Amino acid sequence: KQEVTQIPAALSVPEGENLVLNCSFTDSAIYNLQWFRQDPGKGLTSLLLIQSSQREQTSGRLNASLDKSSGRSTLYIAASQPGDSATYLCAVRLGPSGTYKYIFGTGTRLKVLA
Amino acid sequence: EPEVTQTPSHQVTQMGQEVILRCVPISNHLYFYWYRQILGQKVEFLVSFYNNEISEKSEIFDDQFSVERPDGSNFTLKIRSTKLEDSAMYFCASSESPRSTDTQYFGPGTRLTVL
Fold first, then answer.
1. pLDDT in single tens digits along all 114 residues of chain A
2. In this complex, do A101 and B109 lie within 8 Å of one another by their Cβ atoms?
3. How far apart are CA B21 and CA B78, in angstroms?
4. Nearest-CB residue to A100 (from B48, B91, B107)
5. Would you call B109 an interface residue with chain A, using a CB distance cutoff of 8 Å?
6. Do A43 and B45 touch (CB under 8 A)?
7. What is the distance, to the nearest Å, from the Cα of residue A86 to the centroid of all Cα atoms in its chain?
8. Do A34 and B48 touch (CB under 8 A)?
9. How far apart are CA B79 and CA B66, in angstroms?
10. Burial class, A46, CB count within 10 angstroms (exposed 0-12 / middle 13-18 / buried 19+)
């Protein structure tokens, strides 16, 4: 059974710092992995999607990497800003067919201090 | 940018009552999903829906739950007889296809409180 874990559970950094959020999964046979941002009481905003054949994806100050063999993904945030404060979720999808669901991690709650 | 919308944003109901949560997926999307998040816990998959039928459902999605696409734009989740443990944030999502390149876009959620 696929389990997704995120470390750390919470992180507080000063503005401007570069930071790395970690996601690990137990079954390496994933179809893709998505990083989401969740603001308090709000929905999920997709940040980056990495297909199983890819090693990384970049969008602005965000870079996500994927190492399927070790069951890990990292989300790198450069030059953090107070507006980056949110909970970051990673989610993995299994199988190319018949399995549409995402399995989510517990999230990392990020606070960027001004 | 197109977005998934959900109504109501907050629903309060008495235990045993029926509730219907509504979603309007992105217009050209064909695959629809419901997830839920109990306060302080992980987001959990409930069901996926394509071509007017359920594609996949989790063990949470028992006989108390049903989904429907009553017209060309709405996608609904019905809980027949709510329990206290159904209190959660319910998210609707949609995607163009289940291809690995396709993102699932999530709505803002409906907070369901069962008293």
1. 889 999 999 999 999 999 999 999 998 888 899 999 999 877 899 999 998 889 999 999 999 999 999 999 999 999 999 999 999 999 998 866 657 789 999 999 999 999
2. no
3. 6
4. B48
5. yes
6. no
7. 12
8. no
9. 7
10. middle
